[in-house]
Design goal:
Structural class: alpha/beta
Number of helices: 13
Strand content: 15-25%
Number of strands: 14
Order of helices and strands: EHEHHEHHEHEEEHEHEHEHEEHHEEH
Low-confidence stretches: none
Mean pLDDT: 96
Bound molecules: nicotinamide-adenine-dinucleotide, 3-isopropylmalic acid, manganese (II) ion
Distance between the termini: 22 Å
Radius of gyration: 20 Å
Shape: globular
Length: about 375
């Protein structure tokens, strides 16, 4: 029987709660298929800093190196709590960015998807949503401002200053462009390059390389949209987009807006793909405002499991079943508390009840 080793990094805040539901589904998938999953939890994030003195401990690195896939919960503390950890050791700088760098996970897939039947969760009007929302944000994840050279100091005028470099070379852009074109080819054959070339030279190079790579994919139509306008179009007419590709920082912001148009960040899973390793995580953070209350929406975490089944383990059919099971739970009139527009009609359920119901639905498929 095939065995897959999975590193589970629960993370902070709501991380352990939504991870527990993901594990329920992974275990059920193992029962339903001729496959075994070897699950290993390891400390990662702020919790790891307090328990092990490092937010990405050596033993976690070793486990991730060996694992066939990594499933990661959100990390991070509230603004106030973060100050208890030295800046470079805070989980974002001390664990998450090093994880991305370690496995060179340059291609971040952030699906923004709401089938028609669940369209009532979106704050957008039904006439804007039409047949539902279904787009794929592809975010470059290991370049740009996040990983550029940084300097802080006091300048000649005695003023504190900061300098952060935004750097991309053509190879970095070409490899994410290829991923985006291949994805667009499998979908509606339209790719939007999101940019700011009216100001940023990095975007000029970005678009030049997009166009060059596009020559190998003549059946895909390449369109260009400025990032500020794209933010508006996502609200007014998301249907004009299918696959969107953008640099790291733009992708961070627009993908959270993707969560906004769906109705909650809790509906946003993701996959972070490198040359040899893929790790999976919700796009959202550790939600300190609701942590420990059994109210978080585990859809993003279970959706990340579905992405892992398909992308790492070649189990596309079972991945579809997991999506369908989650959507059936909502279609039957249940809702997690974050999806507030349906509060009046829906039965509001807890994090663990959602996981149980998804397992029931999956069992029935
Ligand atoms: P957040 O994404 O944690 O939360 C924003 C809002 O969305 C909150 O109201 C929260 O309750 C809600 N929310 C998020 N996920 C939800 C879910 N699954 N179910 C229900 N509601 C959900 O953003 P924030 O509050 O700005 O950041 C909190 C911490 O998370 C910060 O330390 C930040 O750095 C970190 N963070 C980590 C990651 C990651 O690990 N990849 C991503 C984003 C933010
Ligand atoms: C995300 C997060 C991270 C990012 C933070 C926590 C470093 O917001 O995954 O979207 O900005 O990439
Ligand atoms: Mn983000």
């Amino acid at each position: 029987m095939t065995n897959h080793k999975i590193a589970l990094l629960d993370g902070d805040g709501i991380g352990p709660e939504i991870m527990a539901e993901a594990v329920k589904i992974i275990e059920l998938v193992a029962k339903r298929n001729s496959v075994t999953f070897e699950l290993h939890h390891a400390p990662f994030g702020a919790g790891a800093w307090f328990s092990d003195g490092h937010s990405f401990p050596e033993q976690t690195k070793a486990l991730c190196d060996e694992a066939d896939a990594i499933l990661k919960g959100p990390i991070g503390l509230s603004h106030e709590e973060s100050k208890k950890i030295p800046m470079d050791m805070q989980p974002e700088r001390g664990a998450l960015l090093p994880l991305r760098r370690r496995y060179d996970t340059y291609a971040n897939f952030r699906p923004v998807s709401l089938p028609r039947g669940l369209a009532h969760f979106s704050p957008l009007k039904p006439e804007i949503i039409g047949d539902g929302i279904d787009l794929m944000i592809i975010r470059e994840l290991v370049g740009g401002l996040y990983f550029g050279e940084k300097q802080t100091g006091v300048n000649a005028r005695g003023k504190r200053y900061v300098h952060e470099m935004l750097e991309y070379d053509e190879d970095q852009i070409a490899r994410i462009a290829k991923v985006a074109f291949v994805t667009a080819q499998k979908r509606k054959k339209v790719l939007h390059s999101i940019h700011k070339s009216n100001v940023l030279n990095s975007s000029v190079l970005w678009n030049e390389v997009m166009e060059e790579v596009g020559k190998d994919y003549p059946e895909v139509e390449l369109r260009y949209t400025l990032v500020d306008a794209a933010a508006t179009y996502l609200c007014l007419d998301p249907g004009q987009f299918d696959v969107m590709v953008m640099e790291n920082m733009f992708g961070d912001i627009l993908s959270d807006q993707g969560g906004g148009i769906l109705g909650s960040l809790g509906l946003m899973p993701s996959a972070c793909v490198g040359p040899e390793k893929i790790y999976y995580e919700p796009s959202h953070g550790s939600a300190p405002d609701i942590a420990g209350q059994n109210v978080a929406n585990p859809y993003s975490m279970i959706g990340s499991v579905a992405m892992m089944l398909e992308m790492s383990f070649g189990m596309a059919e079972e991945a579809k079943n997991v999506w369908q099971a989650m959507q059936s739970v909502f279609a039957k009139g249940y809702s997690t508390p974050d999806l507030s527009p349906t509060k009046n009609e829906a039965e509001i359920i807890s994090t663990d009840r959602f996981g149980d119901l998804v397992a029931e639905e999956l069992n029935a498929l």
